[in-house]
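Replying to the earlier thread about multi-chain prediction with a worked example.

Input:
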Amino acid sequence: MSLWAAQMWLGLSVAVIGISMHRTGPAFRRHSFGAPVALLGLAVMLFRIEEPPQPESGVVTAAIGAAMWLLPALAGSALVLMGAPLYWKTRPAPLLAGWTLIAVAWYQYYSVMSLVPLDALRWVSTLLGVLLSLTVFTLCVRTAERTTPQEPETERLSEKERKYVESVLRRHLEVADEP
Amino acid sequence: MNPEFESAISAFAGTAALISLFVILAMIGTLNPYHRPAIPVLGATAVILASAYLFAHTAGIAADSVALRLTMSEGVLALIDILPLVFLVSTYLFLRASLRKRPEDPLLVLLDSE
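Result:
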């Protein structure tokens, strides 16, 4: 495998690792390294000095072609989710901007699309491939969980620990009771 | 073999291999002390190797690293192909979310009536 082909796969791998890192942690405080690692991966994948060999060059060309409609689609989706009344509060400006970008994305896709009826067969095969790998993963996780030995029952709290937990609970309940 | 059928098998094998690779990478990205990744990694690796073998057999090439790269590349291309389908479903869900209205609260209705 040539250096440029390896660079493309390395970039893709780093980008996927970054996206996975970003999904860890609570929604209001995501992993701080996730987004930078994902962007680094994209940069490694797309910025290169030489043209990568086949089949990697075909992948990069297809990804850049799809980015023409995918980027407005992603930005529009994010804005719509920010503006939509998911928690009963609408924010009209992001909502309107989001729908405009989604319309642009569909227009961009419509202007470059070339669908034939046989594509449906390929789509079904693709979905079956996704289903197969996720099913195998689910079964493997279930097997791993079943083979994990159970932890022994934890010991009862000591008198000191019991008093500490009680004081924490009381403190929080008293704070919650305040008007 | 029929070229359409060959293309469908390539898409199936490629996507299965690529998603399994993503599974392994996701486990690396979210590694923590409570993870037990050995069995899922073995399962995902088996899917990758089996898919590469299936692709090589269909394309009539040797099952080596080139076949593995070709399988993964087919997977990326197949996933890019179904992205518009995913976007279509997402657009419908966004439309429903944008037109969402707060359901009437029976307690508030009761207060209004008093």
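Chain B has a mean pLDDT of 86.

Feel free to reuse this layout for your own posts.
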